[in-house]
Design a protein that fits this description.
130 residues, mainly beta, 4-stranded antiparallel β-sheet, 11 strands, globular
Length: 130
């Protein structure tokens, strides 16, 4: 069973930058989908960015498109979320998630379906101040 460990969260000022990391305990380079979700107090968990490893494509929520970048270092089995120009509304607990099967088609909003992800990290808190 793959285990995920997030790191890199913290406090950042609006307009700054922050990089989150998600280290996987085993190789996820074959059929996996991986994604970053976030959950703010009193709100539902929502998809932020997804990586269809099988297809090699990515998808972003409208709210972060153009500011955040999801990437993966296959050699390190690590997923990243580069957060540029964060806003106070990006404040949330950020979770890394993995699905052991991913459709072979371009990444789309379908990859934000929470139920498809069976492996979750413990979360890392991001706080953006204005």
């Amino acid at each position: 069973q793959v285990q995920l460990v997030e790191s890199g969260g913290g406090s950042v000022q609006a307009g700054g930058s922050l990089r989150l990391s998600c280290a996987a305990s085993t190789d996820t380079s074959t059929n996996y989908c991986m994604a970053w979700f976030r959950q703010a107090p009193g709100k539902e968990r929502e998809g932020v960015a997804a990586f269809n490893v099988r297809h090699g494509s990515t998808y972003y929520a409208d709210s972060v498109n153009g500011r955040f970048t999801i990437s993966r270092d296959a050699a390190k089995n690590t997923l990243y979320l580069q957060m540029n120009s964060p806003k106070p509304e990006d404040t949330a607990m950020y979770y890394c998630a993995a699905a052991s099967w991913c459709p072979f088609r371009p990444a789309s909003r379908d990859l934000f379906t929470i139920q498809m992800y069976t492996i979750w990290g413990q979360g890392t808190q991001v706080t953006v101040s204005s």
